Amino acid sequence: MTGVRKGLAKVEVALRWDPSSAGTPANDLDIVAAVYEAADPHGTPAYLVHFGSRSPDGTITLNRDSSTGQGFGFDEVMTLELDRMAARLGRVVVGVVIQGADTGQGPTKTFADIAGTGVRIREGHTDLAASGFESVPDATAATVAVFTRDASGVWSLDAGLRGSDADPEEFARTMGAARP
Predict the structure, then answer these.
(1) Nearest C-alpha neighbor of 77 from the set 115, 111, 34, 31
(2) 47 class by beta-carbon count within 10 Å (0-12 exposed, 13-18 middle, 19+ buried)
(3) Radius of gyration (Cα) for the chain, nearest Å?
(4) How far apart are CA 88 and CA 5, in angstroms?
(5) pLDDT in tens, 54-102
(6) Which is deepest, 26, 64, 98, 99, by most CB within 10 Å?
(7) Is the backbone of residue 85 left (phi > 0), alpha (psi -120 to 50) or beta?
(8) What predicted TM-score, i.e. pTM, was given to this entire model?
(9) How far lies 33's CA from each of 91, 97, 108, in Å?
(10) Cα(3)–Cα(129) distance, rounded to whole angstroms?
(11) What are the CA-CA distances from residue 144 to residues 2, 30, 109, 133 (Å)?
């Protein structure tokens, strides 16, 4: 899942996974979006959007949330209205985190432990990117997309998986940090 698309307005990030086997703890994956000021695109997020929260201006919403992966198709869906975001905001990083990955009851859950994982990014009815998490099997979290606004106000997408083994709170704080 790689590529750059320009001129984006309203996009959807959708996540799917299979439920855990009977008698085992539920698989709970969550979509997280970190929004950054244009003046500090790799610093501390201006705000985070995830389960139980929303963007202060209503431009990012979690339309569907699952804590088990049960259901048909995509289990979590987040909508980003990039064209409505304040001009001071210039970067949005979207990631996926495995909640309860370290349950203290045995080994840490990774993407390799969860069947049927996949992410799709689309605008309208056009798929911009789609992938499973096979390229980051040992990760407990991963960035899936970086949306960046250029000087003329045009939003672009850089889609690609980048795995992390940070806990959910640490991942949310660092997912948009500059990479070497």
Answers:
(1) 31
(2) middle
(3) 16
(4) 21
(5) 899 999 998 755 554 456 666 789 999 999 999 999 999 999 999 864 4
(6) 98
(7) beta
(8) 0.89
(9) 10, 11, 23
(10) 8
(11) 9, 12, 19, 10
